[in-house]
Amino acid sequence: MTEAHTTLRYRILRYTPNLVRDEWVNIGVLLEEVPGSANPARPRRALRLIEEPSEIARVRRLHPGADEELLRALPAEFDARLRAPENEVAVYLEKLGQTLSNVLQLSPQKALLAGDFDAEMDRLFRDHVAPPAWARGGILENTRAWIRARLNDVFLRHRILRHLERSVRVEEFTHPGDPLRLDYACRYNGTRGYLHAVALGRDPAQAKVLAYTAERIRLRTAHAEFTAITEVEPSRENPRHQFVAGLFQDQGIAIVPLSRIEKFAEGLRPRLH
After folding, report:
1. Judgement on whether residues 122 and 187 belong to the same structural domain of the protein
2. Are 166 and 74 members of one domain?
3. Total domains present in the chain
4. C-alpha span between 34 and 204 (Å, rounded)
């Protein structure tokens, strides 16, 4: 059966610290469903912004005087705005396109057809915003976005992507305003499961945040299962890897490296039906 496609439109959010020089760097993607017969009464829209240390660092490299505090505050600000009543969101976006702040600009709007909203958001963010992949010693730089892109490919091939919730808010379990979103969530055999990409070779704070979140969620859902998808198997010779592995073991978070993700997906699929 041919997958149904939906009309979407997107704009790129740009950070422009110096309007006179007209130099900018892309920091986000605003993606919306176009209202119509194929869309719900409230069209889906989402804004994905840079949040990871490598993404913020890239902006600083291009613009040493970048306002890092502003960049880190944007995800929570936009998230709150887009969750307002539909009429308020429409007015806000219209004003956004006309009179944005001195340092933020929206690109012209473009339309496209896509079969999956979340997969298209990942693609647009990867193509327009994410730091370009680069090689060090022949090995591609591993980031959460890099891991997540491969997860989407595997889950799509195993026909389980449509059974997973994506970009799942956790503020109901932690604190109002918590900007963290877990990559995937699902239900199987009466259990709630959560999957989240964690780059072992990057910022260990990612692991601390996931461990804290798992602990908070289990206060409400005792039997929730957590799985961290990593770029590699934790190395016994790497102190950082062992720190993360120990932290996850204490919180009952399973680790599945990408080298075992195909087998993991095969085992996950029958549990989702």
Report:
1. no
2. no
3. 2
4. 39
**Of residues 116, 191, 201, the one with CA closest to residue 153:** 116
Structural domain ending residue among the three candidates 65, 94, 128: 128
Same structural domain, 93 and 182: no
Rounded to whole angstroms, the Cα distance separating 208 from 212 reads 6
Q: What is the mean pLDDT of the chain?
A: 85
Task: Count other C-beta atoms under 10 Å from residue 4's C-beta.
Answer: 8
pLDDT digits (tens, 9 = 90+) for 52-98: 777 888 898 888 888 888 888 888 888 888 888 888 887 887 776 66
157-164 contact pairs (CB < 8 A, 24+): 157/265, 158/262, 158/265, 158/266, 158/268, 158/269, 159/269, 160/265, 160/268, 160/269, 160/272, 161/116, 161/119, 162/116, 163/272, 163/273, 164/195
Q: Could you give the 3-state DSSP secondary structure of residue 139?
A: strand
Q: Quick one: 20 and 119 in the same domain? A: yes
Phi and psi of 194, rounded to 5°? -130, 135
Pairing of strands 23-33, 225-230: unpaired
Listed residues 94, 128, 162: the one ending a domain: 128
Coil/strand/helix, residue 30: strand
**Spatial contact of 261 and 152, defined as CB atoms under 8 Å apart:** no
Same domain, 114 and 217: no
Is the domain of 39 the same as that of 123?
yes
Indicate whether 273 pLDDT > 80. Answer: no
Q: 135 falls in which pLDDT band (50, 70, 90)?
A: very low
* Residue range(s) defining the domain that contains residue 77: 6-128
Nearest Cα neighbor of 151 from 111, 182, 108 is: 182
Prediction pTM value: 0.70
**Tens-place pLDDT, residues 213-272:** 999 999 999 899 999 999 999 999 999 999 999 999 999 999 999 999 999 999 998 888
